[in-house]
Amino acid sequence: LPLLPKQVLLTNLLTDLPEMAIATDNVDPEMLEKPQRWNMSFIRKFMIVFGPLSSVFDYLTFGVLLLVLKATVNQFRTGWFLESVISASLIVLVIRSKRPFFKSKPGKYLFTVTLITVAITFILPFTLIGELFNFTLLPLHFYLFLGIILASYIISAEIVKKFFWK
C-alpha cells in the first residue's frame, strides 16, 4: 500500500474535518433565489470530471516523489499524505460554489477548520506524533514542488469548474 493503514485512517480523519464544517458554510445568494433539487445526473458528471482531475495531481506527486526526489518508502508516504490531505482540504473551498473561490466567501468555521487542518497536516511530520505515524522529514525542495502541484490543482479545478457549470 502507498500508505500504512494508520496513515489512511489519519488521512480520513483530517480530510473529514473541513467536510463536516461545510454545514456551516455561507451560501451564494443566487443559490437561495429558488429551491434547489438534487440532480443525480449532475452529481455523476461532477464525479466523472473532478475525480480524474484529482488523480492527475496524485500521479504528479508520485512522479515527483519517485522520479525527481528518489524518495524512500517513508518519504513517499509522508509526501503523498501531505499532498492528499492538503489538496482534499483546499479543494472543498473551490468546489463549494459556482463562483471562483476568491469571489465566494466561505463560512468562518469552514475556512478556519480548513486552515487548521492544513496547518496540522503540514507540521505533523516535524513532530513526535508524526513519528508515531511513520512520517519523516522531506527535502526542502519537496515543499516547492508541493506548492506548485497544489496551486496547479486549484487553478485547474477553477478552470474545469467554469466549463462544467456552463
Automatic annotation (TrEMBL):
Ranges for domain Cation-transporting P-type ATPase C-terminal: 1-163
Main location, first listed in the record: membrane
UniProt keywords, alphabetically: Cell membrane, Magnesium, Membrane, Phosphoprotein, Transmembrane, Transmembrane helix
Pfam families (alphabetical): Cation_ATPase_C
Residue stretches in coiled coil: none
Positions of transmembrane segments: 46-68, 80-97, 109-128, 140-160
InterPro entries attached to this UniProt entry: ATPase_P-typ_cation-transptr_C (IPR006068), ATPase_P-typ_TM_dom_sf (IPR023298), P-type_ATPase_IIIB (IPR006415)
Intracellular or extracellular location(s): Cell membrane
MF GO annotations: P-type magnesium transporter activity
One cellular component term from this protein's GO annotations in UniProt: plasma membrane
Protein name in UniProt: Magnesium-translocating P-type ATPase
Organism in which the protein naturally occurs: Thermodesulfobacterium geofontis
